[in-house]
Design a protein that fits this description.
49% helix, alpha+beta, Beta Polymerase, domain 2, globular, Hypothetical protein af1432, Ubiquitin-like (UB roll), 5-stranded mixed sheet, 32 helices
Length: 760
C-alpha cells in the first residue's frame, strides 16, 4: 500500500479544490481570490482580505499534525467554498471558522469587526466543533446532530462551511492515528456524506465517499485503484468512441449539446459490487456519458435520438426531470447496450440542472449582487422539507438513541424511493415498500390519524398494499375514526409515519398511560421487595429525568405506560443511586478486599450451573433482577456493598449507563457451564407479548408453556382502547436456547404482533 500513500486518485478525476500542499499561504490566498473573481459580480474583496489577515495573525505559531502552518486549513476550507461559488460572507466565515475555538479572538470581536451575519456563521460552526465528548458515544453523536440541524434551519450556510471543513480534514486524514482515521471516516460516511447528498452537493458527497472508503476499506480501495487504472486505456477508447458518436448524432439533429464521459467514483463501484455480489470484472457500467443541452425540450429530444442509436435495457430508465429527487436533482437516466454488448449509462440534463446537481443547495443559496457588492435581494433555500421533518422529530423524541437511529435511517442515501401521486396530481416521494399509511402521514398527521381505508388507481386496496411508481393514491378518512392502530407500526416504512403514529399514542393516551405506568412502577417495586420511599428522592428522580430527557415525573410514568420505557429500567437506575449513596467509591485494593469479605460470608449460592468470577473463588453472587441473565447470555459482575456480587447481562441498561467511577467495580464473570436439556437448574425470565386481543388468545399462549413443561410464575395483562393486548409473563427456564425455541412457537400464534424479553 506504501506506493499509493501520496497519490490522490480521488481528486485526479476532477473533484473540487485539488490539494495544494506545496503552495505557500500567500499563494493559496491568491488561488482563493482567483476563484472568487471568476464568478462573483463584485470587485470588492476587502472583507475577504480582512478575514484572511485576522486569521493569519490569530493562528500565528499554530501547526497542524502534518507540521504545516494551521492557517493552511482555513484557507483550504475557503477555497472549497469558493469552488462551490458561495457568497463572500460564507468564504470570510470559512477563513475565520476556527479563530473563536482555537485562538484568543472572541465572538464579540468577530461581530464587531465583521458584522452580525459573518459572526453568526462563525459561531454556528464553532458550536458544532466545540462539542466535547463525555460518556456515551451515541448520546454525544445525537446531541451533535440535534445542534447541527438546528443550525442548518437558521442558516444553511453553517452546514456548508462544516462540510467544507470536514472535506479538508478528510483530505489530510493520513496524519491522524489509524483509530482516529477509522472513527472520522465512519462518521463521515454515516452522517456528513448523506447530508451532502441531501443538500444535493454531489461534488462534496462523491469525494467524502471515496475518502471514507480509502480509510475504512484501504485494501479494497487500492485494489480498485490498481484494477481500474490497468484498464484505463481500454475504457477511455470505448468512452471516447461513444462520446464522439453521440455528439455527431446531436449535431446532425440540430441539437446544441455538449457530450462527455466520466468514470463512476470508487465508492459507487464498491457499493454495486457489494449489493450485487459481483467482482469488478463483472461490473460493466463503470462509466457514464453525459449530455448537456439548453432546454428541457432538448433533453427529451436527445433521449429519443440515443434510444434509436443504442438498445435500451428494460426497466433501467428513470425520469428525474418530471419527478425530481428530494434534493432538487433533475436528469434523465437510461442504460444502453453499447459496442461489444457492454452496458453503459447516459445522463441527459440542461446546464442549469447540471449546476444544481453539482452544487445542490449551494446553487440556490446565492445573493443577487450588484457590482458594488450590496445585496438588494436574497434567494431563500428551497426544497428542504426533510430538514423541517427532522426538526419536528426533535420535538417529539427525547430518547437520543431513537433519534440517532431515525436520522441515520432517514439520511441513508442508499435507500430506494418510489414516486406516487395525490388525487390532484402532486408528486410524493416515499421510501421503497411504503404503504397507503405512509402516504397518508406524508400529507398530514390528521389525514393519517383519521384514515380508514385507501384507493390506488381508483380501486380499494388493503392498508398494507406496497406502493409502486406512478400509483395514484386516495386516502379515505372518517371523523369517527378512533385513531391509528399499533398494527400500523409493523407495516409502515417511512420514519415520518412511524414517528407520527407513536406521537399520537403518547399524546392521546397520556392520562391512561400515566395511570398504567404508575401501577407498573409500584408493582415492580413490590415484586422485588424495594421500598418506594427509599428511591423516590428528588436526586434519584432527577437522574432519571436527565437520562431520558423528561421534564416531569408524570412523563416517566406515561413512557412506562405506553411501553417506551421499562419500569425495571427506571427503578434500577434509581436503586443504583440509592445504593451508591449508602456505600462509597472503592479503590482497586478496596474492590479486592470487598470481594474477599463477601466470599467469607455464608450467603447461599445457586446450586448447579453456577457462576465463575475471574480471579477469586467461592464468591457469593446473586442474579440482578433488572436484566435476569440466563445461561447463554454474556454476563459481567458488579461488586455491591454488603450483598456480594450481582451478575448482569453485558447489555443491561444499568451496566451500559455506569459512570467511569462505577465501572471500576465491574469484574469479569462467566457461566460455569451452560446447562443442556438434561439440567434441572431453572432461572427466572420474563417476556412481553403484544397481540391483537381475541377470545382464546391467553389459552393459546399458556398452551405453549404447558407443552414445553415451563412453569409460569406470574401473568399480567392489559388491553388498550385499540384492542392491542400487552401480556407480561414471568416464568422459569433453563437457558437462552430454550427461550428462543419457545418464543419462536409463540410467534406462530395467530394475532401475535411482537415479543420482547424483559426483566424477571
Amino acid at each position: 500500500m506504501a506506493e499509493h500513500e501520496e497519490k490522490n486518485f480521488v481528486l485526479d478525476r476532477g473533484t473540487i479544490s485539488p490539494m495544494l500542499e506545496a503552495l505557500s499561504c500567500d499563494e493559496l490566498y491568491d488561488e482563493l481570490i482567483g476563484k472568487l473573481r471568476k464568478y462573483h459580480p463584485s470587485d470588492d474583496i476587502s472583507v475577504i482580505k480582512k478575514a484572511y489577515d485576522l486569521a493569519v495573525d490569530a493562528h500565528k505559531g499554530q501547526l497542524r499534525r502534518s507540521g504545516e502552518p494551521f492557517i493552511i486549513h482555513p484557507l483550504s476550507v475557503a477555497i472549497i467554498l469558493a469552488d462551490l461559488e458561495m457568497d463572500k460572507e460564507t468564504i470570510a466565515a470559512g477563513l475565520l471558522h476556527d479563530v473563536v475555538e482555537d485562538t484568543d479572538i472572541s465572538f464579540d470581536e468577530v461581530k464587531e469587526q465583521f458584522g452580525e451575519d459573518i459572526a453568526y456563521l462563525v459561531d454556528g460552526v464553532t458550536k458544532l466543533s466545540k462539542l466535547s465528548y463525555h460518556g456515551n458515544k451515541m448520546e454525544f453523536q445525537a446531541d451533535n446532530l440535534r445542534k447541527m440541524f438546528l443550525a442548518m434551519a437558521k442558516d444553511i450556510r453553517v452546514i456548508i462551511i462544516k462540510l467544507a471543513d470536514r472535506l479538508h480534514n478528510m483530505r489530510t486524514l493520513k496524519y491522524q492515528s489509524v483509530e482516529k482515521q477509522i472513527e472520522i471516516a465512519r462518521e463521515t460516511l454515516d452522517i456528513y456524506s448523506p447530508i451532502a447528498q441531501r443538500l444535493g452537493i454531489s461534488k462534496v458527497k462523491v469525494e467524502l465517499d471515496d475518502l471514507s472508503l480509502k480509510y475504512l476499506q484501504p485494501d479494497i480501495y487500492y485494489d480498485l485503484v490498481d484494477k481500474i487504472a490497468a484498464k484505463k486505456s481500454e475504457r477511455e477508447r470505448i468512452v471516447l468512441s461513444i462520446v464522439n458518436e453521440v455528439q455527431q448524432h446531436m449535431d446532425d439533429a440540430g441539437i446544441r449539446a455538449r457530450v462527455d464521459g466520466r468514470v463512476k467514483h470508487f465508492f459507487s463501484i464498491y457499493k454495486k459490487m457489494v449489493n450485487q455480489g459481483k467482482t469488478l470484472d463483472q461490473i460493466y457500467d463503470l462509466f457514464a456519458v453525459r449530455i448537456y443541452v439548453d432546454s428541457v425540450k432538448d433533453c427529451y429530444a436527445a433521449l429519443g435520438i440515443i434510444h434509436e442509436m443504442y438498445m435500451p435495457m428494460p426497466g433501467r430508465f428513470k425520469d428525474y426531470i418530471a419527478m425530481p429527487k428530494p434534493n432538487m436533482y433533475q436528469s434523465l437516466h437510461t442504460t444502453l447496450i453499447g459496442p461489444n454488448g457492454i452496458p453503459f449509462e447516459i445522463q441527459i440534463r440542461t446546464y442549469e440542472m447540471h449546476r444544481v446537481a453539482e452544487y445542490g443547495i449551494a446553487a440556490h443559496w446565492k445573493y443577487k449582487e450588484s457590482s458594488d457588492g450590496k445585496n438588494p435581494d436574497m434567494k431563500e433555500e428551497e426544497k428542504l422539507s426533510w430538514l423541517r421533518q427532522i426538526l419536528e422529530w426533535q420535538k417529539d423524541m427525547s430518547d437520543n438513541t431513537e433519534f440517532l437511529s431515525i436520522i441515520k435511517g432517514d439520511l441513508n442515501l442508499f435507500s430506494d424511493q418510489v414516486y406516487c401521486f395525490t388525487p390532484t396530481g402532486d408528486v410524493k416521494t416515499l421510501p421503497s415498500g411504503s404503504t397507503p399509511v405512509d402516504f397518508a402521514y406524508s400529507i398530514h398527521s390528521a389525514v393519517g390519524n383519521r384514515m380508514i381505508g385507501a384507493k390506488v388507481n381508483g380501486k380499494l386496496v388493503n392498508i398494507d398494499y406496497r406502493i409502486n411508481n406512478g400509483d395514484r393514491i386516495e386516502i379515505i378518512t372518517s371523523q369517527n375514526s378512533k385513531g391509528p392502530s399499533r398494527d400500523w407500526l409493523a407495516i409502515v416504512k417511512s420514519t415520518q409515519a412511524r414517528s407520527k403514529i407513536n406521537a399520537w399514542f403518547k399524546n392521546e393516551l397520556k392520562e391512561d398511560n400515566i395511570v398504567k405506568g404508575k401501577e407498573a412502577f409500584h408493582e415492580y417495586c413490590r415484586a422485588h421487595a424495594i421500598q418506594v420511599t427509599d428511591i423516590m428522592k428528588p436526586e434519584y428522580m432527577d437522574a432519571v429525568l436527565k437520562r431520558y430527557g423528561f421534564r416531569e415525573w408524570d412523563a416517566v410514568y406515561a413512557a412506562i405506560g405506553h411501553g417506551g420505557l421499562k419500569e425495571g429500567q427506571v427503578v434500577n437506575r434509581m436503586l443504583e443511586g440509592y445504593e451508591r449513596d449508602h456505600s462509597k467509591h472503592l479503590s482497586d485494593e478496596e474492590v479486592i478486599s470487598e470481594i474477599e469479605e463477601q466470599s467469607k460470608k455464608s450467603i447461599k449460592r445457586r446450586q448447579g450451573g453456577g457462576i465463575i468470577v475471574r480471579g477469586v473463588h467461592d464468591v457469593s453472587v446473586h442474579f440482578s433482577k433488572c436484566c435476569s441473565p440466563l445461561p447463554g447470555d454474556e454476563i459481567i459482575g458488579f461488586v455491591t456493598r454488603g450483598r456480594g456480587i450481582s451478575i448482569h447481562r453485558t447489555d443491561c441498561v444499568n451496566i451500559i449507563s455506569l459512570t467511569e467511577d462505577e465501572k471500576s467495580r465491574l469484574i469479569d464473570a462467566e457461566w460455569e457451564s451452560v446447562p443442556g436439556e438434561e439440567s434441572n437448574e431453572r432461572y427466572a425470565a420474563a417476556i412481553n407479548i403484544y397481540a391483537n386481543n381475541r377470545n382464546g388468545l391467553l389459552v393459546d399462549i399458556t398452551k405453549v408453556f404447558t407443552e414445553a413443561n415451563i412453569t409460569i410464575l406470574s401473568c399480567n395483562t392489559r388491553t388498550s382502547k385499540q384492542g392491542v393486548a400487552t401480556i407480561n409473563i414471568g416464568f422459569e427456564i433453563h437457558n437462552t436456547n430454550e427461550l428462543k425455541r419457545m418464543v419462536e412457537k409463540l410467534r406462530s400464534i395467530q394475532s401475535i404482533i411482537d415479543i420482547e424479553r424483559t426483566s424477571g
